[in-house]
């Protein structure tokens, strides 16, 4: 059996940090964790088209600081900041706590694994050939300075009766080297034939 491990979980405490940073006592841990889940679910639902690869959550007593990474900050903020205020009020109502929102722009979305996977998923939903979509994403990432990229799609590719997996890679993707910065992201394309899963690994060497 192949021993698979999550590339980000594998690197936690080496060169990656947790996406939720807080401490809770034993009795409160489950509730706080569930609260994090609700915050992320609501935000992902609201910001479906804002290209949000990840959300960081930090806590201090009754205050929750949420940092949203996005490739389209304009959509998140809205006109005169209306959208962000609306989101803040909704989250405060759902959690009963004071919410502070920070927006951080993702400068190169083509090098973010989650956004690359989402982009491929979007193209598959528009019925673009999967090989073409993968090739384009790989070339774009490499041209913008990635050291390596690997994209894997699995499902009823091209409407075939038997599901299969296809992989495209370029450059080096050293998954076994803990020191190296490997970004990993997944997405799902909901096509008429069923769901096609996309996994993406991007290797950006730290200077």
From TrEMBL:
Q: Which GO terms describe its molecular function?
A: mRNA binding; rRNA binding; structural constituent of ribosome
Q: Which domain of life is it from?
A: Bacteria
Please provide the Gene Ontology terms (biological process) for this protein: translation
**InterPro entries linked:** KH_dom (IPR004087), KH_dom-like_a/b (IPR015946), KH_dom_type_2 (IPR004044), KH_sf_prok-type (IPR009019), Ribosomal_S3_C_sf (IPR036419), Ribosomal_uS3 (IPR057258), Ribosomal_uS3_bac-typ (IPR005704), Ribosomal_uS3_C (IPR001351)
Q: Which family is annotated?
A: Belongs to the universal ribosomal protein uS3 family.
**Quaternary structure and partners:** Part of the 30S ribosomal subunit. Forms a tight complex with proteins S10 and S14.
- Kindly provide the name given to this protein in its UniProt entry: Small ribosomal subunit protein uS3
Q: Which gene encodes it?
A: rpsC
């Amino acid at each position: 059996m192949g021993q698979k491990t999550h590339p980000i979980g594998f690197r936690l405490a080496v060169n990656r940090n947790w996406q939720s940073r807080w401490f809770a006592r034993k009795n409160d841990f489950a509730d706080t964790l569930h609260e994090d889940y609700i915050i992320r679910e609501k935000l992902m639902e609201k910001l479906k088209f804002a290209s949000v690869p990840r959300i960081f959550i930090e806590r201090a007593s009754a205050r929750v600081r949420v940092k949203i990474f996005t490739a389209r900050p304009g959509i998140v903020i809205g006109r005169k900041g209306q959208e962000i205020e609306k989101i803040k009020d909704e989250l405060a109502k759902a959690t009963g706590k004071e919410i502070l929102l920070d927006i951080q722009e993702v400068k190169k979305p083509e090098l973010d694994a989650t956004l690359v996977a989402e982009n491929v998923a979007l193209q598959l939903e528009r019925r673009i050939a999967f090989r073409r979509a993968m090739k384009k994403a790989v070339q774009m990432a490499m041209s913008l300075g990635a050291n390596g990229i690997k994209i894997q799609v699995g499902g009823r590719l091209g409407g075939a009766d038997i599901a299969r997996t296809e992989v495209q890679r370029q450059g080096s993707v050293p998954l076994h080297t803990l020191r190296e910065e490997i970004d990993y992201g997944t997405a799902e394309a909901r096509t008429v034939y069923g769901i096609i899963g996309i996994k993406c690994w991007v290797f950006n060497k730290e200077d």
